[in-house]
Amino acid sequence: MTATEPAGAAPATPPAMSPEPGAPRPAPGATPPRAPLIARAAAELVGTAALVAVVVGSGIQATELTDDVALRLLANSTATVFGLGVLIALLGPVSGAHFNPAVTLAEWWTARRGGAGVTARELAVYVPSQVAGAIAGAVLADAMFGEPLVTWSQHDRSAGNLLVGEVVATAGLILVIFGLARTDRLRLAPVAVASYIGAAYWFTSSTSFANPAVTIGRAFTDTFAGIAPASVPGFIVMQLLGTVVGLALVAVVFMRGRTGQEQPTA
Hints:
- The chain is built from eight helices and no strands.
- It is globular.
């Protein structure tokens, strides 16, 4: 769920995958060198599948253990925080650990605007991999707990306040990831991104889906973490809007200063 290091950041890749001495490091959105696209696609598929399996599976487990909705959400959010942190740390050196079309789109836009980021070809591979992984993760979670493998969720989440929550959740996620990239601190991404998602479970009305692929996957399970298919388009539109808002916030908050040579003369 995070980009790869910008220039000057501490390397997140193993020594064998690091650039040659003196070569520029990948900037936000760039994928680690020497990782074949098929490996990156596999990492995105497996990582997104594992993330959704954690979200859905912990929701099912919590439902079986308690009738207290607050405890269910606490269990669900706690499992997600730990699971997401591990997945980012594990797969970040391979694909950047996006697990999220909103993050991939934001990085593609960054590259299109002159920065480093995923190419259109990588975008076309990453997003389907993430969506397929999300669906597979929901089916896997249902299988582990003896639920029907595919049952469309009946959990309506179409209320306007929930849609506002998705804009806030996604904008904050983009701000965290690209803010870390702008300040050369992406080494903190496993902790920072997972912590943000855990907090957003509680401070956003929507419980922070903040991810189009995960939203689609969670429509395939009629369990605690599910979302009705009719609610999916609204959530995705708001997540894309949140992505735009997040990038705008990054541009303003982390505005790059001018060098001494660019300063106007008196």
